[in-house]
Amino acid sequence: MADSDKDRPSVQDSLKQVVGLLRKHELARRLAEREETPGQELVEGVGGEQSFTELQKKLEQLHPADVAYVLEALPLAERLAVWDLVKAERDGEILLEVSDAVRETLIAHMETKELIAATEQLDTDEIADLAPDLPREVMQDVFRSLSFEEREQLRSAMSYPEDTVGGLMDFDMITVRDDITVEVVLRYLRRLDEMPDHTDQLFVVDRQQYLRGLLSVSRLLVADLDTPVTAIMAGATVHLAPDEKAQDAALAFERYDLVSAPVVDGDGKLIGRVTVNSVVDFIREDTDSELLSAGGLREEEDLFASVWSSVKNRWTWLAINLVTAFIASRVIGIFEGSIEKLVALAALMPIVAGIGGNSGNQTVTMIVRAMALGQITAASARKLFAKEIGVSFINGLIWGSVVGLFAFFIYHKWQLGLVMTGAMVLNLLLAAIMGVAVPLSMQKLGRDPAVGSSVMITAITDSGGFFIFLGLATLFLVP
Fold first, then answer.
1. Which residues contact residue 253 at a Cβ distance below 8 angstroms, ignoring those fewer than 6 apart?
2. Fold of 307-476
3. Do 272 and 171 touch, CB atoms closer than 8 A?
4. Which is higher by pLDDT, 434 or 454?
5. For residues 356 and 399, is the Cβ–Cβ distance under 8 A?
6. Residue 262, beta-bridge partner list
7. What is the reported pTM?
8. Does 43 score more than 70 pLDDT?
9. In the chain, what is the greatest distance between 2 CA atoms, to the nearest angstrom?
10. How many Å apart are CA 240 and CA 278, to the nearest integer?
11. Is 3's pLDDT higher than 60?
């Protein structure tokens, strides 16, 4: 690691420094109030010009992504104070980096002129990313400020859903004709102020903008000046369509170690490119969304959102869990008589339900991951059922026997041990069947299989486990 990397503070250190400077401002403000001197706003340099300058200088040194991290980690009042100190020319970059929930609070705090100025600094694909959160009048003014070509690019970018290749597409790229030499290409590149980010290759097109091939920058730099572009270009073996799923593009980038990839329309014309940074952002957002969904959250939540906003975000799956809990309680209620006659059932039944839920969630996790990678087909679904049933049957026998022996040694009833073993096997088989069936069914219905599958599996294995165990006990143990 280079010395500059070692000396560079981590983003957590930067957050601590910003918080420390904010506290110095707050302390100075309180002292000023005690001395009955005219109070000043937090962002106006309370505590002296030195602390104000330190905080502003610190923010200027941070990368936009690090400023975004700091803003997300601050309560609302401090967040807005820091946001007011950020230089206006960086607003757009930072708005792109912060989470959707935090972006809403920052945009609500900005005036229309500030939003227009911040948005006009961005590329068209970046404006399209911000567009859903911007007021209509802001977008209208920004649209009028763009050139004709930029307007068409913005319309194109906004016409695609966020989870498609078109939603990730970038229009800032370098194209060269297929009838020129390396010398001409190099002269053209030297006239540019800078090359677009993540330019590992140039896109070779004909006069009608049809994609003909890809010209690697590394090959370009070592080729003879009089070499035709067509002699050193590679075929575009990997190219994307704008209506393809972004997940498919992410898999292609991972499989082929891509830095950039061309996007072509149905006729083969080059319309844009996708770069690795866009793919990484998509993967992170998709992963965050799955984690939130698995935790029962409807959408991304600002860590310091109001109590009511957080309640609204979380109530859906809590309500579903409440319903499933009522169902499980009624299943238990059916067998109240059996539980009264054999109290050991009340102590043992959570074991059957808990193991079944864990097994089902393991199956769901494997299936959802395989579906995300495109590894499951109609032909392989039956084999998956058979495989998961086999795994669950063996696990049920092994761990059911362990639990059965546990029950026998505690309660000295071999019949109870057999019932525990049988209930464990049956509930794990139920977990395997539903662990495959639920995500496949949700995908067939056009729903995201990652959303709610775990909650449904847990509810099914809880109710099913109680019913199987108490039912077997009622048949074979209770007189």
1. 261, 274, 276, 279
2. Tetracycline Repressor; domain 2 (1.10.357)
3. yes
4. 434
5. no
6. 273
7. 0.73
8. no
9. 97
10. 14
11. no
Is residue 426 within a helix (H) or strand (E), and if so which, with residue range? helix 414-444
**Which residue shows structure tokens 């009955």?**
36
Residue 2 has pLDDT above 70, yes or no: no
228's tokens: 């035709």
In the chain, what are the domain boundaries? Answer: 7-168, 175-294, 307-476
**What token pair was written down for 404?**
């059965």
pLDDT of 91-128, one tens digit each?
999 999 998 889 999 999 999 999 999 998 898 988 99
Tell which residue, 89, 52, 90, has the closest CA to residue 71: 90
Superfamily of structural domain 7-168 = MgtE N-terminal domain-like (1.25.60.10)
For residue 294, pLDDT over 70 is answered with: no
CB 360 within 8 Å of CB 460: yes
Whether residue 166 contacts residue 160, with contact meaning beta carbons closer than 8 Å, is answered with yes
**Whole-Å CA distances, 360 to 22, 252, 332, 403, 424:** 48, 30, 21, 18, 13
Rg of the chain taking only CA atoms, in angstroms: 30
Mean pLDDT of the region 138-167: 90
Q: The tokens 């106006």 sit on which residue?
A: 44
pLDDT digits (tens, 9 = 90+) for 63-90: 999 999 999 999 988 899 889 888 888 9
Residue 422 CB-half CA count within 13 A: 15
Q: 175-294 has which fold?
A: CBS-domain (3.10.580)
At 8, the pLDDT band (50, 70, 90 cuts) reads low
How many other C-beta atoms lie within 10 A of the C-beta of residue 455?
Answer: 18
